[in-house]
Design goal:
Blueprint: H1 6-53, H2 61-106, H3 124-129, H4 138-142, H5 148-160, H6 164-179, H7 181-193, H8 202-208, H9 218-240, H10 246-278, H11 284-297, H12 303-312, H13 319-333, H14 342-352, H15 354-369, H16 373-395, E1 403-405, E2 415-420, E3 432-436, E4 442-447, H17 453-469, E5 477-481, E6 483-488, H18 501-521, E7 527-533, H19 541-557, E8 561-566, E9 581-586, E10 588-593, E11 596-601, E12 606-607, H20 615-622
Parallel strand pairs: 1-5, 4-8, 4-9, 6-7, 7-8
Antiparallel strand pairs: 2-3, 2-5, 9-12, 10-11
Helix pairs in contact: 1-2, 2-7, 5-16, 5-17, 6-16, 7-11, 9-10, 9-15, 10-14, 11-13, 12-16, 13-15
């Protein structure tokens, strides 16, 4: 059952965190103790071995038997120790998951770790303006994805959004996943175990489309099939056929082993490169197999979830079963990485040229199932991104799903919301009822310094981004058309490019206007929304007013909706904007405490043009009034 309040969410995470921290402490103590026992048994097994070599007390074989028993005990303890290490890692990852969950709820951004993402240059301005991928960002709020395809899917959803029908499908999927809290957290835990392999399935997918390693090297496989027969015959001959001279069997065995050794020296490196391409780490394939199995077994009802299940598990190829088969073959290929089975691998490599056989089994899997792998991982990436949205829905029970509609030129579409607040702020955030649009109008936001103008614009933009992903938004009610957002808020000059602050602003505004023109000319089903924060500050007030009026008028004429914040209290009276402006403002309050004047803000939006300014009063407060 989902928690109903923010405090209940944090309380649940804190309880889970305390439980798993205690588990980590217990596991760590047991793991260390068994580790000492493991090392002691190995050293003890060497003692009778050296006693046997030197025939102490005139006996040899009894010492060797004791060596074997101690070494067998070492292997058993080593196996138990490896399992305990896995348990310790699991508990440690759960501590990380719940610690970061609390940090997200409390907006403690420095405590949250997310994968790195690359953003194309043209999207950096919007990302910076709306905090999409900054240190305190939408991506950090949602960024529980750990598989590379899950992370890239989440990035694309943040940047591009979706059309109204797709948003509805995602919302239904998010609602269903949100209810399965424990399932999602187990799913996230397995994804966390994949984080270190950030190359992800990309190299694996390249392998599935590549030519067989044995193409043009068939003779290697032939030799690798002959030498095991020779080795087995020689071993059985030594043990069971004393009539044949021992030297004959030894020559056969050594010859086969020498051929395998030469093949290994020449080709094992390139074969291991293929193994690394298939699975860069020993457990990677097993983790992916577990994720596919969980998705396949999930009792989904939402259409988008059932669609993704079909993508992963179809009649043509079973992504769940096929990846589990691959896991078994990868395990055989990666025996060299297993601390317990490494000695077995060395023996098999010399007797049978093991690497060639393991590679052949992988190539057989590729021929039968590899062509379907791309759609499995694509489905997994979307499922993981939906889990990220579901976690936000569960963590913010008071947020709502927006109504997302098609931007129709015949409809007076607008962004409308009640109790809209900035989703990246904590519980101290202040909510306002806001409307941006309909087309033909612009929301003109005035007010004094630090009063909340920029935060309002970013709150609208961030909620629109969340809404178009299929996520909940920070509001009591929210309605929006499908939008493409463009902004100019945090412009900086560039010494390296020789661009002044003013020129940088002009270039960004040109990009915004060009986008609006392209959308209109292409009959784009999205409407453009612009968010402009105190633009063109790098010029004088008279020319700034004229320039801003013309830019905003052009955007309005192109059918865009938007909001602009400004200190220019007369901007709404210009000929270009007088009829289009919907003015709102924020204000400050002053009070005197202990003989000192202090300024406070309520961050409540009011209708009309700001009636006060505070620049001179701020000078007085900081001691610069003289």
């Amino acid at each position: 059952m989902l928690p109903k309040t923010h405090s209940e969410v944090i309380a649940r995470y804190q309880e889970k965190l305390d439980t798993h921290r205690a588990s980590v402490q217990r596991c760590d103590q047991r793991w260390s103790s068994v580790g000492y026992l493991r090392g002691s048994l190995f050293l003890l097994s060497l003692v009778p071995f050296f006693l046997a070599i030197n025939e102490v007390l005139g006996i040899g074989w009894p010492w060797m038997y004791l060596t074997g028993l101690l070494f067998l005990a070492f292997l058993v303890v080593a196996y138990i120790h490896e399992g305990m290490q896995t348990e310790l890692k699991r508990a440690s990852l759960l501590v990380k998951i719940y610690r970061e969950s609390i940090a997200r709820c409390q907006r403690d951004w420095d405590e949250i770790d997310v994968p790195e993402v690359e953003i194309e240059r043209a999207r950096i301005a919007l990302s910076t303006d709306l905090d999409l991928f900054t240190n305190s960002s939408i991506f950090k709020l949602l960024g529980i994805t750990r598989t590379p395809l899950g992370t890239s899917t989440l990035r694309d959803w943040i940047l591009d959004g979706a059309m109204a029908d797709e948003v509805k499908l995602r919302q239904e999927a998010v609602k269903e996943l949100a209810r399965h809290i424990d399932w999602r957290e187990d799913f996230q835990l397995t994804c966390e175990q994949l984080e270190a392999g950030q190359s992800g399935p990309s190299r694996f997918l390249e392998w599935t489309q590549s030519e067989s390693w044995f193409a043009g090297r068939g003779w290697i496989l032939t030799l690798a099939r002959i030498t095991p027969v020779v080795s087995v015959v020689a071993i059985f001959g030594l043990l069971l056929i004393p009539a044949v001279p021992m030297m004959t069997w030894l020559v056969m065995l050594v010859s086969a082993m020498l051929v395998n050794f030469l093949l290994s020296v020449l080709f094992a490196g390139s074969i291991h490169d293929v193994f690394n391409q298939v699975s860069s780490r020993a457990n990677e394939a097993s983790h992916y197999a577990k994720l596919f199995r969980w998705i396949g077994d999930f009792e989904a009802r939402a259409p988008r979830l059932t669609e993704l299940q079909k993508k992963i598990k179809s009649s043509r190829s079973d992504g769940v079963g096929d990846v589990e088969k691959l896991h078994g073959r990868v395990f055989l290929a990666n025996m060299r990485r297993n601390g317990i089975l490494f000695l077995v691998y060395v023996v098999f490599e010399f007797l049978f040229f093991w690497d060639a056989h393991a590679l052949w089994w992988l190539e057989k899997w590729k021929d039968s199932s590899g062509q379907h792998a791309g759609q499995w991982f694509e489905g997994l990436g979307q499922w993981e991104a939906l889990c990220a949205l579901a976690k936000l829905h569960a963590d913010e029970p008071e947020w709502v799903f927006p109504e997302v509609v098609v931007a129709d030129t015949t409809e007076k579409t607008a962004v409308e919301g009640t109790a809209v607040a900035h989703p990246l702020l904590g519980l101290e955030r202040v909510a306002n009822d806001v409307q941006v649009g309909p087309p033909g109008t612009v929301l003109l936001v005035t007010g004094s310094n630090m009063s909340g103008k920029s935060t309002l614009l970013r709150a609208v933009g961030a909620n629109v981004v969340l809404g178009q992903m299929g996520s909940v938004v920070c509001a009591n009610r929210f309605r929006q058309p499908t939008l493409q957002i463009e902004s100019s808020m945090r412009i900086a000059d560039s010494l390296s490019e020789g661009v002044s602050f003013f020129m940088a602003e002009l270039k960004r505004l040109k990009e915004v206007v060009d986008t609006a023109e392209q959308i209109q000319q292409a009959n784009n089903p999205r409407r453009m929304m612009f968010l402009l924060d105190e633009i063109l500050q790098g010029t004088n007030s008279r020319e700034r007013q004229i320039a801003v009026s013309r830019v905003v008028r052009r955007l309005i004429d192109l059918g865009a909706v938007g909001a602009i914040s400004t200190h220019d209290l007369d901007l709404g009276t210009t000929d270009e904007l007088a009829a289009a402006c919907v003015p709102v403002y924020f204000s400050e309050q002053f009070r005197e405490i202990d003989g000192k004047k202090q300024m406070t803000f309520d961050y409540q939006m009011k209708m009309g043009i700001a009636e006060t300014t505070n620049a001179l009063k701020l000078l007085e407060i900081v001691g610069l009034s003289e």
